[in-house]
Here is the input.
Amino acid sequence: MQAELSRLDDQLARALEGEAWHGPSVLEALEGVSAQQAVEHPIAGAHSIWELVLHLCGTYDLVLRRIGGDGRQMTESEDWPSVPLPSGENWSDCIRELKRLNEELRQAVVNFPAERLDQPLVPEAPYTAYTQFIGVTQHNLYHAGQIVLLKKFL
Here is the structure.
């Protein structure tokens, strides 16, 4: 089971940083996106790239919270936080936070008790720990695809 934790760590890294078999990772999709581009809404009714990155951060927070035993559901503002004043510094801070959260989750996964992978992280969560961990990678890649499409419309 320890090998499974290593595989989950690897998938979390690939979904964010790269060398994913399906196509671009989140950070690869974000390459070259400026703060001004990140805040734009090139597709009517769709989230902006910046909103998607903040949403990814919120998902990491949720799973980390559950690992810590906190079963509270996400609020709307945690799931879709408000975009700060668009600036290069704020955009860089947002990307840096995404990377930090990925690293924190990866460390938590590697240290997670392998015998608990098939159990819920908290009673309030309907999914096993394994499903939560691999779900973060799936969630990242789903939104990486959206980011790629948004970039094409910019």
